[in-house]
Design brief:
The protein is an all-alpha fold. It has one domain. The protein is 74% helix and 0% strand. It contains eight helices and no strands. The longest helix is centred in the last third of the chain and has 31 residues. The chain starts with a helix and ends with a helix.
Length: 178
Amino acid sequence: MFLLALAYQAFPPAITLNSKEVTPADRWMGVLILALMQAVLYNFGGWLGERFMHLFEAHSPIIVFAVLAFISFRLIQQALKIRKGTQLFSFHSLQHLSLLAVMTAFPAFFAGLIRPWFSPIDWYFSWLLFVGAFIFALIAAKMQHNPFQILMASLFQLAAAALVILNAFFVLFSAYLM
């Protein structure tokens, strides 16, 4: 479930890839960029986490809780922006999309930071994250966006936030109650 919540980050920016101004080749490249940034930033965060998170070993459940709560907070913020229509963008170039892909992949980066303590699926999590983000972005790029689909995207983003915060409380309570 945590994997789905992170992979869903590629969905909202990919909604506007289905406009008349975007060529099919750019649409495919956009989907690939959005999915790739999720996996790359997760791996980069994991690499950094393996380098210095051992310094915080004594407080690992609290740090995992804090990072997951932060990710959940960001997901809620984005869901509210999607609902208002301010999180949807039109792209003039793949460079703009690449910058947005990096910005939307920051929750995956923070999830990577805590990978030494909280890695639900070990080493192949980033591959599954890439595949999941690719599928979500592809679905979004094929959709015609209308108010109902924008509302559903926002609700799914809130569901992803709920999954992440449930994981956060599970980690915190399992560390201190067992």
